[in-house]
Design a protein that fits this description.
The chain is an alpha+beta fold. It is built from eight helices and four strands, in the order βαβαββαααααα.
Length: about 210
């Protein structure tokens, strides 16, 4: 899909939000430049009646498109893949695998990496023992991902899918979490492949207020 008019796509995001980056990156890789509204989480904008009318979850990201308001990053990625015809898996078996990896990411990888990151950045104070616990969970999840990517270019199938975009949006923050990836060559090679895709950009370039 070629670039769409910004007015057709509006994202409500926050620059510190990993899930927000997943959505911004997906749109960028699809050649879409959306309007971008930065939600002030510290001021509690996500709890206002106006924002809750868009999503009952009171969380970013939210995508508005074609009269719809969509929430939860994995669901948004699936929607954009369906609408654009980009980064979807071929065949029902691969589509099921893509969903499985996205569910796994939410449950095992993102949940641990993001928690360690918020502690390391001082966003949310956390007992050192709790940080160590989540570091261990992150290490186990990354070991599993390393095994999956050993000998293959992408998580599912022979081309990048929303599973890669979703999982990358968690792995991307390992640096801020002070989680070392240097001992995981399959993951680091996969990161390089994804970051070489046309349209890739870092969070600071994609989560910028325009609306």
């Amino acid at each position: 899909m070629t670039s769409s008019a910004a007015a057709e796509w509006l994202i409500h995001v926050n620059p510190l939000s990993g899930p927000s980056y997943k959505v911004g990156l997906m749109l960028a890789l699809c050649g879409i430049t959306p309007s971008c509204h930065i939600v002030d989480l510290r001021a509690g904008e996500q709890r206002t009646s106006e924002f809750l009318a868009k999503t009952p979850f009171g969380q970013v990201p939210v995508l508005e498109h074609a009269g719809r308001s969509l929430a939860q990053s994995a669901s948004i990625l699936e929607y954009v893949a369906s609408v654009t015809g980009r980064f979807g898996a071929v065949g029902e078996a691969d589509r099921a695998d893509v969903r499985a990896w996205m569910y796994w990411d939410f449950d095992r990888l993102a949940s641990s990496v993001y928690r360690v990151r918020t502690a390391r950045l001082g966003i949310r104070p956390m007992d050192p023992a709790v940080v160590t616990h989540y570091e261990g969970l992150a290490a186990m999840a990354l070991d599993l991902l390393e095994g999956r990517l050993t000998g293959r270019d992408w998580i599912v199938g022979d081309a990048p899918t929303i599973a890669d975009i979703d999982v990358y949006g968690s792995v991307r923050y390992c640096g801020e979490a002070q989680i070392d990836l240097s001992t995981r060559p399959a993951i680091t090679a996969w990161i390089a492949r994804l970051e070489a895709l046309p349209g890739w950009a870092p969070p600071a370039a994609l989560l910028v207020a325009t609306a």
